[in-house]
Amino acid sequence: MTDYGWLSLLPPLVALGLAIKTRQVYVSLLLGTWVGWTIMSEWNPVTGLIVSVDSMVGVFSDRGRTLTILLTAMIGALITFIQHSGGVAGFMNAIAARGIATNRRSAAAMAWLIGFVIFVEANIGVFVSGPVSRPLFDRLRVSREKLAYILDSTASAKATVIPINSWGAYIIGLLSVATIDNPLRAMLLSIPLNLYAWLAIGLALFVAITDTNLGPMKTAEQRVRNEGKLLRDGAEPLVSSEVLMLPSKPGAPQRAVNLVAPVLTIVVTVLIALYLTGDGNPMNGDGSASAFYAIGTALAVAAVLYRAQGIMTFSESTEMFLKGVGGLIPIVVLLILAFVIGDTCRAIGTGDFLARAAEASLTPGVIPATLFVLAAMASFATGTSWGTWAIMMPIGLSMVELMGLDPTLVIAAVLGGGIFGDHCSPISDSTIISSMSAGTDHIDHVRTQLPYALIAGGITVGAYLILGFAL
Amino acid sequence: MSDAATLGFLSVVPPLLAIGLAIWSKQVYLSLFAGIWMAWTILSGWNPLAGLAASVESVVQVFADADRTMLIMLSVMIGALLTFSQYSGGMAGLIGWLTDRGLVRSRRSAGFLAWALAGVVFVESTIGPLISGAVTRPLFDRLKISREKLSYILDSMCSPKSLMLPLNTFGAYIVGLLVTQDVTAPVGLLASAVPLNFYAILAVVAALVVAVSDRDFGPMAAAQRRVREEGKVLRDGAEPLVAPEALAVPVKPGVRPAASNLVIPVVTVVSALPVLLWVTGDGNLMNGSGSVSAFWAVLLGLGAAASLYLGRGILSLAEVTDMFMKGVGALTPVGLLLVLAFAIGDACVAMGTGPYVARAAEAGLGPPLVPAALFAVAGFTAFSTGTSFGTWAIMIPIAIPMASLLDIHPGLAVAAVLGGGLFGDHSSPISDSTIVASLAASADHIDHVRTQLPYALAIAGVSLALYVAFGFALSGP
């Protein structure tokens, strides 16, 4: 293999730089790949392009990746199912009707819990929790900014610590690229070490329960309490989340069971499938196949359940399935590009080069912390955790190989860094969705949230430094 | 795993189940999957759970083949070509241009335009019908001609046209099959089969006659009455194969419709294809790789469109990306159908469906009846499996030895197999070209199949009679 030296840094740098400048993730990843293969094709851009396209087609020759892509698309179908059947609306009504929250603290804790508990997808919990909690927050005089902060903190972070969703499948997909013999096990072991995700979730709960506020959030809270203004004067709340949500089918009964049953089916089936494919040991199970069966079963259960209640005919289910899958095409494309840039970085030796450079100048102990900081900066600048992981994970894993580091700690550091930007970057979709769902001004949300995110990030860096030297 | 050779009649059950279910329930996806599941359950010793696992694996395996992955990718990317050309005002520009010429004032001239546009691009089977559908669909809607009729005309111009002038992937593929049978002059043999390919010729001519005479029979006549009397271009409850959003992408506000925004990308695709076939065939068009060339042609078309719109300042990069996703998303149903069609084709191969059918028909026939029998068997196989290419792959190796052994005109035998495959390709609900026609016309897939079948059967009947007659005339000493 040719040693490309510092040239091997060009593909990820081009991808990142363009993503930051143009905010066009797809085009940037594509160009990064093209640059990589052009360099490897002796600077012939046409050959480079042909190889790039071939590598995209080649993504599907890997069974695990194909499964990941198919199942991600099917999760889109499931979400469409649940919304169209009135399951989401039913779930929201069921919570609102309980009248659990009577004070500021319990209202905030409830917002946190709803966001956390719906883990089938990162943003759907935010969509549900926002409209349910907003009237309570307004009545109890808690600022919209705080609601947005609580929602945002549970969004992507919980999707990585309870990875029974497309996030888990994606991470397994990224890990199977490398020389990890059991990607599922590696992901599961990295969960306890994903300090940023846990701290973000924990800090939000702490803030909710203790009503502790600091910095701009304190100002916002005082404004609400003293002046009764839920929003800053001149704030421009983003469009309400109802616009983004697929409405229930007109006339459909709003029953929580239509959300709860499919979600429980996933959890139960995934465990059974992991047990069966792992020959009795779930940790050795086939992660992507199990998730695929689980989503498939949940879709079938949902279709039969809705048919039995007379909500949706099978032909409507088919239509909703295709609509849901069609809606997730952007994520499917992102997946393909993520796999492709990962392959490019491996082929050109980006990780090896960085690892050698780091070996020469850094002690292995600081590597996890460094990776976390780099991933956090990249995800903050690009607003995408998935895109950041696509670039950083192959680099991190090459370092693991070359420097003999603990893979779980490195994986956790890269994942946590990606979550940091996903959580607090103003251009991240989960940040935007949180602003929408809470009905707050987007910039106010970003501003009030940042101090909390930085605290969690700072603690994480410190902890990774300690763990890096300890392990 | 059961031995494929011992399955016998069982090997025909899954495709029959899929077709029967599809026609009865009108649920194409579920029917296909049921057929696949049935097949793998039989192959897994009647264990339905193992069969399900094997079915899922077979779906995943479809993508393991780069050619198929490219076919699936290019099929859905054509959706992006559709959204591109609409949002940029290219489609509106072209339709305006065609309408300004006064080319289409009547139902007959609209029918002729659909037929001619679909036929003119002979280098690739599906692009012509797709363009024709996009251009003529609004005209058909305005002139109150049913979507079913449009899809019939387009489908007839999909594969049959490709064998009338086989300077395309069809021709290359068949030459390849003939070479494996040690035929000394494969191109000559193919050329001698073209005028004897009655089904292809009749299908193309019939579509023209139906288009310009405006006469219909059977379910098609009922569909036409529905449009004329109630103004409904689609049956109530029909599910057109493309999501409506993709069809009705409005022109971007403030953009002036210009035909070139459609014509340049399409011309790029059409002209890139032969060049790519030439390049991938190492200087011989006939040896080119069809899927690779078509895939790259669509990519180049999309690239040309994007550069054109960016260069003219019509669309931003973000809008181009957005329209790409939207178009691909809208064609997801087609992608899924292709995946399932490939998977059921594989299941048929695993079960030995084709060889079984061939063996059953081979027994006890006189040489003069062999061409007719080959046509019938190929027709039935292609209808059951939905694939002409797959049918040819099974039947050509049977037909060539039979022809030389029984002293039958080889061109006639080859033509009979090709025509039979075309019949299935044309009329089977699980054939990809039938799917493409429904998609291009935005018709309900099952309605398309139902209204088209009487025409296809009539043509097949005439072809069969011709093969019997020619069998007696051309065979024997």
Write the layout of secondary structure elements.
The complex is a heterodimer of chains A (471) and B (477).
Chain A: H1 10-22, H2 25-40, H3 45-58, H4 63-84, H5 87-98, H6 104-117, H7 124-139, H8 144-161, H9 166-176, H10 183-190, H11 195-210, H12 216-227, H13 257-277, H14 287-308, H15 314-327, H16 329-348, H17 350-361, H18 367-382, H19 385-403, H20 407-424, H21 429-438, H22 442-470
Chain B: H1 13-25, H2 28-43, H3 48-62, H4 66-87, H5 90-100, H6 107-120, H7 127-142, H8 147-156, H9 159-164, H10 169-180, H11 186-193, H12 198-213, H13 219-230, H14 244-247, H15 260-280, H16 290-311, H17 317-330, H18 332-351, H19 353-362, H20 370-385, H21 388-406, H22 410-427, H23 432-441, H24 445-474
Helix pairs in contact in B: 1-2, 2-3, 2-18, 3-18, 4-15, 4-16, 4-17, 4-18, 5-15, 6-7, 6-12, 7-8, 7-23, 8-12, 8-23, 8-24, 10-11, 10-21, 11-22, 12-24, 13-24, 15-16, 18-23, 19-20, 20-21, 20-22, 20-24, 21-22, 22-24
Structural class of chain A: mainly alpha
Order of helices and strands of chain A: HHHHHHHHHHHHHHHHHHHHHH
Counting copies of identical and different chains, the oligomeric state is heterodimer
Task: Please count the beta strands of chain B (DSSP E, at least 2 residues each).
Answer: 0
Query: What structural class do you assign from the helix and strand content of chain B?
Result: mainly alpha
Tell me the β content of chain A.
under 5%
Poorly predicted tracts of residues of chain A: none
Shape of chain B: globular
Number of strands of chain A: 0
Q: Helicity range of the residues of chain A? A: over 70%
**Termini gap of chain B:** 47 Å
- Tell me roughly what share of residues is in helical segments of chain B: over 70%
CA radius of gyration of chain B:
22 Å
